[in-house]
Amino acid sequence: MKLSAQEEYGLRCLLRLGREGEGASLTISELSRREGISAPNVAKLMRVLRRGGYVRSTRGKEGGYTLARPAEEINLGEALAVLGGRLYDPAFCQRHSGVERLCTHMPDCSIRSVWRLVQVAVDEVLGRLSLRDLLCSEEQMSGWKSPHAVSLPVVSRPA
Known about the structure:
Elements: H1 5-20, H2 28-35, H3 39-51, E1 55-58, E2 64-67, H4 76-84, H5 92-95, H6 110-127, H7 131-134, H8 138-142
Antiparallel strand pairs: 1-2
Helix pairs in contact: 1-3, 1-4, 2-3
């Protein structure tokens, strides 16, 4: 599982705006330069985030983009969903059923239940985090633990 570039870069732009402080704004060129993302890509991301209600744009000399609400009110799971969707949604099997008209595993698919379980875990973690939570150092963030964390066994395979 990996984030798309749109999800990664969009989240970085939100974080950059969050670091600027409440009410501060940045232009597309400033975001582009500070995050090392092309200006056309930043413009696209800001359009997606504006439509999703996460940023506000202001025109003119003092214009730019600012967070539409305080960082503690921006849920990471919701923001990432606006930027790129979810890892798994129930319609997945209808879109990716292989070369056959209907997937041969449709009535009993153990893989689908794994993806559903992973999505629930991802939703739980991201749903508990706000943009404010990420406005800290990597060391501080790596100390964050979900109270529902599950340790998975390490399975060794014979060589």
